[in-house]
């Protein structure tokens, strides 16, 4: 092994280029593989809600109106939906599932303590629990009784409760929000916890993380533009025409766009797979270029070192040892590229990056990328190493 390291060092100028190429190839491959493993890991986790038979109606206010008129029209639309037997429940939401992470990330505190991972937050109205079939494990969902209580009513998921309150009971607790962008915002709190739901995720590729639903009253000045409705089983798509006609009759100057959450989920899946495919193509092209370069360099090494190889054969070196020498040199170069790049990647969690990626997924991605790099090196070294093993002792004389 010491002999192999010495040979690598003596040809350091030639090997430096291969080492640099392997260094960056490993970084890109590690990113793509870890992303793929992470997607596969999160895709298998339960969502915490039901999206089947749920429609998303986006309300586009094409004509500006005052706050009271907007509130009145939104209320009329919600009341009009009660006329249809096809609709089981309806609620306004600020962010929809499978759309954009289903909420913004903010910092919440309780008695000076905050959560390391910023929870996501979403504005919603009453009855969203029935629309998405959310599983309540403690307390209750929002209702009209919340109009007079102190603080803004919120419902949190189990992970939020465990992270902020630990083993303490979360119901009735008051929390506050730390907003670095708008420190004087009136929405800083207090927020009163009225219910806890099971673990909840915004889409197939979001991690299981702290989440908070903030009640948006129909009497508030702000009402979200997305209206989610749950339809009864067996309702056909043609019902959408009747629904839009009724809503258009209430708000003639507004427009409405209807999509299903199933369509949102398909679009979200296609977006993530396209991103992964693009990264895979880039990594594949880079690795192919590196592989061809390594084959060329090794081939050239064999041609330039024919005399050395022939001399070793004359001194009793077997074909297997000659082949192992060239393979060992390339494995040493690969190791000198993989080790520092692994040390670099291992620093990312210490700086707050990849906070949602589980440790086993992170390590699995690094291990898989390293394995692929070594397999690439072995594959590229097989033929040049075989050529080196075919050199005969007499060929050393022709090189003098």
Summarize the structure.
The chain is of the alpha+beta class and 400 residues long. The chain contains 11 helices and 13 strands. Helices cover 49% and strands 16% of the residues.
What this model shows, in words?
The chain is α+β, with helices and mostly antiparallel strands and 400 residues long. It has two domains: 2-45 and 267-399, no CATH class; 90-228, no CATH class. 49% of the residues lie in helices and 16% in strands. Strands 3, 4, 5, 6, 7, 8, 9, 10 and 11 form a nine-stranded mixed sheet that branches. It has a four-stranded antiparallel sheet with strand order 2-12-1-13. The longest helix is centred in the last third of the chain and has 44 residues, at 261-304. The radius of gyration is 31 Å and the shape is elongated. The relative contact order is 0.18. The model is unreliable at 3-10 (pLDDT under 50).
In which range does the helix fraction lie? 40-55%
Number of domains: 2
Mean pLDDT: 80
Straight-line distance between termini: 28 Å
> Helix- and strand-based class?
alpha+beta
How many beta-strand elements?
13
Order of helices and strands: HHEHEEEEEHEEHEEEEHEHHHHH
Our estimate of the beta-strand percent is 15-25%
């Amino acid at each position: 092994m010491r002999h192999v390291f010495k040979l690598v060092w003596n040809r350091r100028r030639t090997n430096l280029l291969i080492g640099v190429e392997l260094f960056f190839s490993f970084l890109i491959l590690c990113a793509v593989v870890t992303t793929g493993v992470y997607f596969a890991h999160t895709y298998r986790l339960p969502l915490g809600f039901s999206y089947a038979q749920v429609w998303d109606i986006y309300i586009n206010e094409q004509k500006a109106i005052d706050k009271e008129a907007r509130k009145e029209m939104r209320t009329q639309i919600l009341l009009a939906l009660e006329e249809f037997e096809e609709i089981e429940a309806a609620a306004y939401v600020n962010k929809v599932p499978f759309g954009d992470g289903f909420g913004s990330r903010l910092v919440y505190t309780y008695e000076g303590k905050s959560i390391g991972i910023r929870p996501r937050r979403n504005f919603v109205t009453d009855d969203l629990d029935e629309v998405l079939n959310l599983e309540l494990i403690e307390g209750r969902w929002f209702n009209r009784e919340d109009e007079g209580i102190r603080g803004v009513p919120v419902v949190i998921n189990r992970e939020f409760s465990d992270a902020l309150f630990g083993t303490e009971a979360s119901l009735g607790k008051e929390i506050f929000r730390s907003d670095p962008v708008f420190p004087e915002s009136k929405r800083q709190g207090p927020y009163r916890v009225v219910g806890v739901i099971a673990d909840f995720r915004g889409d197939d590729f979001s991690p299981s993380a702290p989440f908070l639903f903030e009640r948006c009253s129909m009497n508030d000045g702000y009402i979200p533009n997305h209206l989610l409705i749950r339809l009864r089983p067996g309702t056909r798509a043609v019902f959408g025409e009747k629904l839009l006609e009724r809503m258009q009759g209430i708000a003639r100057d507004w427009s409405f766009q209807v999509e299903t959450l199933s369509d949102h989920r398909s679009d979200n899946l296609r977006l993530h797979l396209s991103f992964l495919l693009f990264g895979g193509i880039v990594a594949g092209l880079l690795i192919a270029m590196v592989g061809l370069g390594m084959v060329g360099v090794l081939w050239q090494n064999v041609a330039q070192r024919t005399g050395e190889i022939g001399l070793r054969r004359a001194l009793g070196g077997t074909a297997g040892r000659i082949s192992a020498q060239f393979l060992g040199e390339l494995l040493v170069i690969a190791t000198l590229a993989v080790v520092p790049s692994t040390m670099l990647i291992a620093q990312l969690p210490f700086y707050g990056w990849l906070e949602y990626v589980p440790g086993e997924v992170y390590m699995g991605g690094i291990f898989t990328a390293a394995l692929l790099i070594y397999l690439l090196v072995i594959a590229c070294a097989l033929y040049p190493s075989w050529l080196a093993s075919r050199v005969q002792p007499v060929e050393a004389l022709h090189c003098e």
